[in-house]
Amino acid sequence: MSDAKTYLDPAIAARLKRTSDGLVAAIVQEHGTGDVLMLAWMDEEALHRTLTTGRATYWSRSRGEYWVKGATSGHHQHVRKVALDCDGDALLLTVDQTGAACHTGTHTCFTDELPVEAS
Amino acid sequence: MSDAKTYLDPAIAARLKRTSDGLVAAIVQEHGTGDVLMLAWMDEEALHRTLTTGRATYWSRSRGEYWVKGATSGHHQHVRKVALDCDGDALLLTVDQTGAACHTGTHTCFTDELPVEAS
Fold first, then answer.
1. Pick from A19, A29, A79: which is nearest to B21 by CB?
2. Domain B10-97 carries which CATH code?
3. Mean pLDDT per segment of 10 residues, for chain A of length 119 residues?
4. Contacts with A, B 56-115, CB within 8 Å
5. 3-state secondary structure string, B9-54?
6. Which of B30, B41, B60, B90 has CA atoms 20 to 30 A from the CA of A28?
7. Cα–Cα distance between A110 and B27 in angstroms, integer?
8. Domain range annotation of chain A
9. % of residues, chain B, pLDDT over 90
10. Is the Magnesium keyword given for this protein (chains A, B) (predicted)?
């Protein structure tokens, strides 16, 4: 988590329950197809920027910086809706995705299927 | 994270990138509707139990114990598919959901919509 001051609405901030590293999980679902594209992380300021710009903005755990999706790749996410879950530790973004959501070039990041033995 | 020994396939365990509290995020999507129902957390043993029983099993961060979804409520999740994402820190479960997914009684946990100012 950044030490940057945040301008997130305090009423929203009070409803967030962050992990021990100060983040909430952000699930990204594509409008239209319903495909779950990716999971990213937000601190309060990333959520503030997302809500006020309509462009999905995350906190990169690996790079330690804010990250506007598509700023490098052009694969933007236009945010239609943001919903918080019942216990405040996850967000669901509904987006219009330009191009591939995954940095590997695939439509979604969830391409590695694991074997379910009993079904 | 529990200190319990896990029997998760080491080849799968090696692909997981856990948060600082030893967990991976598990997104739960309903088969058929495509609705994102909830987000829960798994350690290696929870994933092992899910893959080998076909019943969604999580690690409860608040209670510090394993949790078979529906064991108390009857609202089971029959797991059809499990996919790992490209960087190993999130799972996507495709499930058949019995009853309400959310402990509050609603179909999904994502009922608290936040205002997106620019769209």
1. A19
2. 3.10.20.810
3. 74 86 93 97 96 96 93 95 95 97 96 87
4. 78-87, 89-92, 102-104, 106, 109-115
5. CHHHHCCCCCCCCCCEEEEEEECCCCCEEEEEEECHHHHHHHHHHC
6. B60
7. 11
8. 10-97
9. 82
10. yes
